[in-house]
Design brief:
The chain has 801 residues and is of the alpha+beta class. It is 32% helix and 27% strand. It has five domains: 147 residues, GAF domain (Beta-Lactamase), CATH 3.30.450.40; 100 residues, Beta-Lactamase (2-Layer Sandwich); 142 residues, 2-Layer Sandwich (Beta-Lactamase), CATH 3.30.450; 212 residues, Phosphatase 2c, domain 1 (4-Layer Sandwich), CATH 3.60.40; 114 residues, Histidine kinase-like ATPase, C-terminal domain (Heat Shock Protein 90), CATH 3.30.565. It has 21 helices and 33 strands. Strand 12 and strand 13 form a beta hairpin. The radius of gyration is 36 Å and the shape is flat. It starts with a helix and ends with a strand. This is protein-serine/threonine phosphatase.
Length: 801
């Protein structure tokens, strides 16, 4: 403790230093064993606690946000309001984030109040197995006291800027820059509009992502930044610049600002234009995952620098060249012979049709023909002023060919020949990788489709549609699933879920959970029991993965539903008047986390015309936005939609999906049933007159429904089914009568799982077995189905009214 006290005293001496708070937080990493430490203080509006400084690993690894509501349930807000430390372990954190995806790593979190200078909160995260011990907590207490000194105010936004300096307002994107800095970008200070987008538009596209990570506050933590980037010049190669900056938190009346300098770094780099082109192509091909992506990268790297008029990239499949990229894509820009071979989009032709091209592929090296060379028509018209054919090698085989043509005579220099050869090797390797990716991606998609329902059932009084999009990041199988399960008595179950991770194991578990939920639902269990059984099954499987799930049982006759959530997002309802609501459905933990978990049921009312939407978090959650904001955005999109065509609504929802994760969408529009069945039930008591009571109840019910004919056949079926249940089973017996479209359904449920068996033959002396034959003779159809705790024997008869 003496060491940390000494370090904090040494830092406190220089209270005017802009790095004082950051240096204090670093002591939590050194002396308390924290992996991450941050300071949150009340914002200007007084409603949020905002991140002003941090140290350690990125906060996104732990799902931490840059602000929390002061009245919320976050550890930061609770420590600030209560004035006492709040500590959470992995188990408590898992319960704290039921509606969000739990971070894959286990960690301990401690939040301590900061007293003085408006208050705030010190947040520390530890990844050690035992978390923070007593001495670590004492150290964090000292750090929370040291960080309470007022931080120096942000530098004024007015006044003169030092040479090469700039100041960027993070909320508006307005930038103040000196004349010498604008000169580095080739801009006239008088014409500069003060927008950061103007400066970004002059950078080399390959350097733009790293530069955007600096100028966007949501993608960076508070602190220093330094990087080099290139800006385009009117003539010659791009110019290298070096940026040094620091993000300063906003003070009272001021937004957060990025301040720093930009210097000329071109003197440290040689002017190697061809090497830069090859490097640019290598960078683009490193991120190209499909064959089409490879073609676009080759076109971008070669056509404009070489001032070519057309480029064609073709894959070699057996003995045919299949064109995958044409630039320009218009048919009129290509020879008439090529246009004859066009199929659905672009042409393909056998290699033997162009002997010159076939020879170049056999030799495996770049070939160049200047203007006026004698070539077959299929090639000469591609490049009348010069033609370059680049075989694309990949290991010991040819992946394809690239054709570059000029309309006016082109002078091929030695440097240009070397450039084409180097680019061909890079493109060939990338093309083979992309071909393997496309094939594997198609296989993954096929497997994923096999694990999901092939078609949805037709529902009385409702329509459902589904959509699924796999993640574009990698080739791993996803764990999102959905299902629409028709149930007896005009009920339907909507299920949507997400298994943790992206792997073959996640996809396998997804298939198992979907099958289990469907089996439990068909058995007739209530929604909470269905989800509880699935949770117990997943726990017994001893899997390292967990799953989230939302299960909605809808009564299509009454327009009511019960919803059960297991760590999943709630349904979003769009009512007939266009208003939307995120359902207030109480949730339970994810499946596979707690054995004795409770999954409460929440009621939903569905007036005719209501649209219910179930989605997975891949649609509403991104690394840059909060999941609550995504749900509000989804509700706004549904409110603005026209639910007449559900397919168009689902496609619109997926139109702007981030695609960093799998996305599943399940939509159902409840229209109401035009013809509602008539239903009555009777509990059969085990008394001597039980069968007679059942017949009298059936007779009274049929008369009240207006049935005047076929009484005897219906009552005989009732007698046989009830008698069979009383004689051959124990426990409770229930009879259900349903009438719809002059079709009577008699169903008798009992506690025995054994189904009645139709006898193959009956002798005249037999005393039993004729009941099933009578039911079969009098009914249009009959059968049995399993229900919770037993079975149901049913028969349907056509009646007159």
């Amino acid at each position: 403790m003496l060491r940390v006290e000494g370090a904090l005293k040494a830092i406190a001496v220089d209270q005017e230093s802009p790095e004082r708070v950051h240096r204090v937080l670093e002591q939590a990493l050194v002396f308390a064993g924290a992996a991450f430490a941050a300071l949150y203080t009340p914002g200007q509006d007084g409603e949020l606690l905002r991140l002003v400084e941090s140290a350690g690993v990125p906060r996104t690894l732990y799902g931490l946000r840059d602000s929390y509501p002061r009245t919320g349930r976050s550890p930061v807000a609770e420590a600030h309001r209560g004035g006492r430390p709040v500590s959470l372990g992995p188990a408590e954190l898992a319960e704290h984030v039921q509606a969000r995806r739990v971070p894959s790593r286990d960690f301990f979190l401690t939040a301590l109040p900061v007293h003085g200078d408006g208050g705030g909160c010190l947040l520390a995260v530890c990844e050690r197995p035992d978390g923070f011990d007593t001495e670590d907590r004492e150290c964090l207490h000292l750090i929370s006291e040291a960080v309470a000194f007022p931080a120096p105010a942000a530098p004024a936004e007015g006044g003169e800027l030092p040479p090469g300096a700039f100041s960027l307002a993070m909320d508006t994107g307005r930038v103040r820059a000196g004349d010498d800095l604008l000169d580095l970008f080739g801009l006239d200070p008088v014409e500069f509009d003060g927008r950061v987008e103007t400066l970004l538009g002059l950078t080399v596209p390959e350097d733009l992502p790293s530069l955007m990570s600096v100028v966007e506050a949501d993608h960076m933590s508070i602190g220093d930044r330094e990087l080099e980037f290139r800006v385009l010049q009117p003539t010659g190669p791009p110019k290298w610049l070096r940026l040094r900056g620091r993000l300063l938190p906003g003070g009272v009346g001021h937004s957060a600002r990025l301040v720093g300098t930009v210097d000329d770094a071109s003197t440290l780099r040689s002017d190697v234009t061809d090497v830069a082109r090859v490097q640019r192509l290598a960078t683009a091909l490193a991120t190209a995952v499909t064959v089409r992506d490879v073609g676009k990268a080759v076109v971008a790297a070669l056509r404009r620098p070489l001032r070519a008029d057309r480029i064609a990239l073709a894959e070699l499949e057996s003995d045919r060249l299949v064109v995958t990229v044409l630039d320009p894509p218009e048919p009129e820009a290509w020879p008439e012979l090529w246009r004859r071979e066009w199929r659905t989009e672009w042409p393909d032709a056998p290699v033997r049709a162009m002997p010159t091209l076939a020879a170049a592929l056999r030799e495996g090296r770049a070939r160049i023909w200047p203007a006026g060379s004698a070539l077959e028509r299929g090639l000469s018209e591609v490049g009348p002023g010069g033609l370059a054919v680049l075989p694309l090698p990949a290991g010991n085989r040819m992946a394809g060919a690239c054709l570059i043509g000029w309309d006016t005579p082109h002078d091929f220099g030695s440097d240009e020949r070397a450039l084409l050869t180097a680019c061909a090797g890079l493109a060939g390797q990338a093309l083979m990788r992309a071909r393997a990716f496309d094939a594997e991606h198609e296989l993954v998609g096929m497997l994923q489709r096999q694990l999901l329902p092939r078609r949805l059932p037709r529902l009385p009084g409702a329509e459902a549609v589904t959509r699924y999009l796999p993640s574009t990041a990698g080739l791993e199988l996803g764990g999102d699933w959905y299902d629409v399960i028709p149930l007896p008595d005009n009920h339907v179950a909507l299920v949507i879920g997400d298994v943790q991770g992206h792997s073959a194991g996640a996809a396998t578990l997804m298939g198992q959970m979907r099958t289990a939920l469907r089996a439990y639902a068909v058995e007739g269990h209530t929604p909470d029991v269905v989800v509880s059984h699935a949770n117990r099954l997943l726990m017994d499987m001893e899997s390292d993965l967990f799953a989230t799930c939302a299960y909605v049982d809808i009564d299509l006759e009454e327009g009511s539903a019960w919803c059960v959530r297991a760590g999943h997002l709630p349904p979003v309802l769009r009512y007939p008047d266009g208003t939307t609501e995120i359902a207030e459905a109480e949730g339970g933990p994810p499946l596979g986390v707690i054995t004795q978990a409770v999954f409460p049921m929440s009621p939903l009312r569905l007036p005719p015309g209501t649209l219910i939407a179930l989605v997975t978090d891949g649609l509403v959650e991104t690394p840059d936005s909060d999941i609550d904001e995504g749900m509000e955005r989804l509700a706004d999109q549904l409110a603005a939609s026209a639910p007449v065509d559900l397919g168009l609504v689902a496609d619109a929802l997926l139109g702007n999906a981030p695609r960093s994760d799998d996305v599943a969408v399940l939509l159902l529009r409840y229209d109401g049933m035009d013809l509602r069945p008539l239903r009555e039930s009777w509990t059969v008591w085990r008394v001597p007159q039980a069968v007679g009571h059942a017949r009298r109840f059936a007779r009274r019910t049929l008369r009240s429904w207006g049935v005047t004919e076929d009484f005897d056949a219906a009552l005989l079926v009732v007698s046989e089914l009830v008698t069979n249940a009383l004689v051959h089973t124990d426990g409770q017996v229930r009879m259900d009568l349903t009438l719809v479209n002059n079709r009577l359904r008699v169903a008798v449920a009992d506690a025995s799982p054994r189904s009645p068996v139709r006898p193959t033959s009956i002798g005249w002396e037999a005393t039993g077995g004729r009941g099933v034959l009578l039911v079969e003779a009098l009914s249009a159809t009959w059968g049995t189905l399993p229900v919770s705790g037993g079975k149901q024997v049913w028969a349907e008869l056509a009646l007159g009214r």
